[in-house]
């Protein structure tokens, strides 16, 4: 009996051990998560309360677990889900059916080894897929999306740039164009306008050049939906087929136009410069005084672009509807008069406004914003093209502007013996010693043909040893030399003629 009891106990132990090791063996054969995963955001669509994530998790049997997790879904609901080809902005065919999201939990899980067409697909291929996820309201309402998000190479990064779209024909409509970089380097262009009309679809494009210059369409954008004021376009090439990346778009010579509708393309509702044409917050406004008609006056605003070029915006009050008034930037001061240096866009009588993008003089010489602010010039606005003799508004700009922080010197010569200075507190100063202050700007308007005026570190003739830090046009014998004195300028500099040692003076630099 005792032997039987021992035998029975041993048999039980063997059975328990077999069951235990059998169970362990079964667990070991089940697919396990490797710990590698990638999560993408699912954004709200028709219901602002619903959003979430899609997570791709790698398993050790070369399969992928795709987990959808939404917040804000309702108990009892079942929401079909799919992975599509392309981007959410472009739309595309279904590549892969996913398990429907359970409304009670907001969750679904799908184990994936292949696409719907039978093509095998790995975890690595899925997280680099050219695709996006759609989650629909129900099996009977696939049109209504409750959540959506780009995945793989289409994932949106945190890198973006937003440009202003200003009102044009309707002051109630304005907004922004946001450029967001994708993992692939492509761009998502998202337009958001306020004040649009439900039921109206507004055509949008990226054009070449600036708003002031105008230019042809280079990229067709998705039309703006009137009920939301929004549109999304995935951009990776121009209409010509030339590839363009996010980084290239941020340096593009372009602007955006949004038109009222396909049947009213001539009516613009919003517009804005983008890329290198974007306007900065740096600007300078000059007064345009009345001349022939006391009722007409205004301003000329110079605004710096990202590229360093300038938008010149003239705004006048009292102009006449139907009359177009030519405008120009001239050399010298309004009191002196001078030749036209830059043609500006004519002022429209109905609005009193004009805009001109300026990057060069009429003779082709490049000129940037900082140089225009030191320019020896003035603006004339004429009554009309048929009556150029009548000036309706006029004002000095740049170095000639009243209350300018720039100190102006007019320099001529007395033969080959000396320079003659006027301005800056000097009257017919003969080779005067100058005291300049660090941080201030000085303008030397030179009219001394044959006597190049040089700012130098040594008091010798010739072109060597020129001091060019903060100096533009050093060595001019006719023109404007601008000198913004840097903080590290030496205590003593010199001006001297390139050819004549008697035409010279000392420049003392102070703080």
UniProtKB/TrEMBL annotation:
Please give the family membership noted in the entry: Belongs to the Cu-Zn superoxide dismutase family.
A Gene Ontology biological process noted in the UniProt record is: superoxide metabolic process
The record's Gene3D superfamilies line, in alphabetical order, gives: Cupredoxins - blue copper proteins, Superoxide dismutase, copper/zinc binding domain
The record ties this protein, via SUPFAM superfamilies, to: Cu,Zn superoxide dismutase-like, Cupredoxins
**Under the GO molecular function aspect, what terms does this record hold?**
metal ion binding
Output the InterPro entries linked to this UniProt entry: CHRD (IPR010895), Cupredoxin (IPR008972), SOD-like_Cu/Zn_dom_sf (IPR036423)
Which parts of the sequence belong to the CHRD domain?
169-261
Query: What name is this protein filed under?
Result: CHRD domain-containing protein
Query: Does the record's keyword annotation contain Signal?
Result: yes
Q: Which UniProt keywords apply?
A: Signal
Keyword Cell membrane assigned: no
Domain of life according to the entry: Bacteria
For this protein, the record's Pfam families field holds:
CHRD (PF07452)
- Cleavable signal peptide: 1-21
